[in-house]
Amino acid sequence: MHALRTLFKHHKAWLLLSVTAFLYGCAGYSGAGLKPGIATITDVESTMGQPALAWKNKQGQVVQLAYPRGPAGYVTFMAFFNDAGKLEKIEQVLDERHFALIKTGATQEEVLRIIGPYRDTNVFSARDELDWNYGYCSQNLQRMAYSVMFDTKTGLVTGGQTNPDPLFPAGRMYAQPCAPWTGN
């Protein structure tokens, strides 16, 4: 009986540790507990980890951080800061609204500032085209891939297209269902 109690205590402690780590990991995933106007760049980095990309203003202050959650994830969080280094907002940017902000003629740097680092790339030499691919959950709750197409000579956007995500095939021409990021 004593061995059973000891085992239960160890499992209880392990379960508590696992749940705590899980909850901390979830908060770190999206930065959900960070308060705009209060949280600093240091707070965001200590909660969400090191960003994949960072942008600074002319004074050298960080104004934006990118957090892609992959490699096959379908969310990327952008954290925006004011000139005082305080968090303004964190938003999930892999969605149709943000894709619509990418215009023909945009630079690769402009695309990175809008939707962050790509998941993978394809080069189509015959068309002089480079595609940056992003997985995301569509408004129709399907796993989709958005491709930003660049002219390989100029490096400028020539267009974009959406297809079922090839990393999540469901058979035939249909994409797998997904749950949209709700911020929780």
Count of extended strands: 8
Q: Which fold name corresponds to the CATH topology of the domain at 93-184?
A: Beta-lactamase Inhibitory Protein, Chain:B, domain 1
DSSP helical segment count: 4
| Apparent shape | globular
**Sequence of secondary-structure elements:** HHEEEEHHEEEE
Low-confidence stretches: 1-27
The amount of helix comes to 25-40%
Average pLDDT, all residues: 84
Largest sheet: 4 strands, antiparallel
Q: How far do the termini sit from each other?
A: 42 Å
CATH class value of the domain at 93-184: Alpha Beta
Portion in strands = 25-35%
Reported CATH architecture of the domain at 93-184: 2-Layer Sandwich
Secondary structure class reads: alpha+beta
Our Rg estimate from Cα atoms comes to 20 Å
Strands in their spatial order, largest beta sheet: 1-2-3-4
Descriptive report:
The protein is α+β, with helices and mostly antiparallel strands. The chain has a domain at 93-184: 2-Layer Sandwich (Beta-lactamase Inhibitory Protein, Chain:B, domain 1). It is 27% helix and 30% strand. It contains 4 helices and 8 strands. A hairpin with a 5-residue loop joins β3 (75-81) and β4 (87-92). The longest helix is centred in the first third of the chain and has 29 residues, at 2-30. It is globular and about 50 Å long. The termini are far apart. Mean pLDDT is 84; it is low at 1-27.
What key attributes describe this structure?
184 residues; alpha+beta; 4 helices; 30% strand; globular; four-stranded antiparallel beta sheet
